[in-house]
């Protein structure tokens, strides 16, 4: 069996004394898309923070393509091909669109030709090409989301983490974001898509993990979750 792109194994994580993640285990297969769902405060962002090294796990392990990374720094983990599109986009507001992209550029793990360059990012997001000399602060929310995704792609990741990329965007823009997510999946990237809205992820995810107050309540292929799980119980009314 192929090595998982990402594996969290019995991860416990804390903020100070607050025990947030409690024995979280899930696996992202290579080339697959995992939808990570859960209510507000369930621990989704904390899982992302643990994966990229911002919140080191107190117990348990994190592995990227089979290599343990739970004790590595965020820089070391990024060098192993993990990129995060953070919640709230967090683009560098006082840099231009082009500068935001250039500062994130990195060669793929193991060398070889970079799939993602300024040209290929602009080809995916023509709007960023049109606005490349503008300050990121002046972009619309949807454009900032494109930039946040483009910036993550510039690092030529093997594992892409997307934390609520639809948050705060108009429905048409959300639809555009989901088209992008689908294209990235079709390109072979291994993706974790964090969302509060299950309808968005069911369309595109291979597997679903539902967190409930810091624990994995459900982990199964999408079709099983869609038809066999009482979503209202874990996600509230939607
Ligand atoms: N920096 C922090 N310090 C202390 N507690 C935190 C911190 N960040 C998050 N928490 C708490 O940890 C818990 C999990 O938060 P987390 O952001 O991981 O949830 P989430 O599922 O991503 O929620 P949301 O959908 O609101 O983004 C929440 O109770 C939250 O209040």
Automatic annotation (TrEMBL):
Classification via Pfam families: ABC_tran
Entries under PROSITE patterns matching the protein: ABC_TRANSPORTER_1 (PS00211), ABC_TRANSPORTER_2 (PS50893)
An example molecular function term from Gene Ontology annotations: ATP binding
Keywords assigned by UniProt, alphabetized: Amino-acid transport, ATP-binding, Nucleotide-binding, Transport
Domain annotation ABC transporter: ranges: 6-238
Stored SMART domains: AAA
Presence of the UniProt keyword ATP-binding in the record: yes
Family recorded in the similarity comment: Belongs to the ABC transporter superfamily.
Protein name: ABC transporter ATP-binding protein
């Amino acid at each position: 069996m192929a090595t998982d792109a990402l594996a969290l194994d019995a991860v416990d994580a804390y903020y100070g004394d607050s025990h947030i993640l409690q024995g979280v285990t899930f696996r992202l297969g290579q080339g697959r898309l995992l939808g990570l769902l859960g209510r507000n405060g369930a621990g989704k962002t904390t899982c992302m923070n643990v994966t990229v090294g911002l919140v080191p796990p107190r117990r348990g392990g994190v592995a990227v393509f089979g290599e343990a990374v739970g004790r590595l720094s965020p820089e070391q983990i990024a060098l192993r091909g993990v990129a995060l599109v953070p919640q709230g986009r967090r683009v560098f507001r006082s840099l231009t669109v082009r500068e935001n992209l250039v500062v994130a550029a990195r060669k793929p793990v193991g060398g070889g030709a970079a799939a993602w360059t300024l040209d290929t990012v602009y080809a995916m997001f023509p709007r960023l090409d049109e606005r490349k000399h503008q300050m990121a602060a002046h972009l619309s929310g949807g454009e900032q989301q494109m930039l946040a995704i483009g910036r993550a792609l510039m690092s030529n990741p093997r594992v892409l983490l997307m934390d609520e990329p639809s948050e705060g965007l108009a429905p048409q823009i959300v639809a555009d974001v989901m088209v992008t997510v689908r294209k990235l999946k079709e390109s072979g990237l291994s993706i974790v898509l964090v969302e509060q809205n299950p309808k968005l992820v069911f369309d595109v995810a291979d597997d679903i993990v539902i967190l409930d107050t810091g624990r994995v309540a459900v982990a199964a292929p999408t079709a099983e979750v869609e038809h066999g799980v009482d979503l209202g119980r874990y996600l509230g009314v939607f």
